[in-house]
# Entry
Amino acid sequence: MSYCVNCGVELDATASACPLCGTPVQNPRQKVDTAAPKPFPTRREEVPPESKRGPALLVTAMLASVAVCCGALNLLLPSGGAWSLYVIGAALMLWLWLVPPLLMRRMPLLLRLTVDAAAVGVYVLLIALELDGLKWYLGLALPIVLWGGACLLFLGVVLGGGRRSILSTVTLLIGTAGSFLLGVECFVDRFFQGIWRPGWSLVVVAVCVSLIIPLIVVRRVPSLREEVRRRFHF
# Structure
């Protein structure tokens, strides 16, 4: 049994160099065994990707079963309203969220966010149809859904463009959340009052800014950044 003179790792009899640090093996008492098989593969191979059709079919069957059962109960036991639309819409929304990413291994970010936003929009549309509220859907719900999708797309593009630190990621998340809530109040005020009068959203934005400024300072000052990493184990 041999050990590496540099790092001390145990060496196999077939090793001519340390697999950990690459130091050549020189043991006059034990020559390198070139006939025995290596203890690890010498050729790089790729593991075939696991098929996710089974989980996708299972999720589809479960959601379809819930939607069909609720629809049938709504028809057999009329209660004065199409309450099953809420369940069917939720099942459809969950299907669009879960199944396409399972079937498409490398689903483009823009396509995925578009599908997710469309799922939410369709679900809210079903609620609007049940409540006879196409006016508030087109004037309020749909703009909020589109604005939320735009914010998520911004985060996906910025955070997916390269590896970012935890401080940068938290800063972007806080800033995007503040922008989203600012837009929500804008849409609500314009729908109900016809004019935007910033109120509670400015308080949220002020809190977000007060949180972002220290994060930016810590991110820019190396000594503070290292201290935060050391204390919080970043």
Q: What stands out?
A: The chain has a mean pLDDT of 82. The first helix runs from residue 53 to 76. The chain has seven helices and two strands.
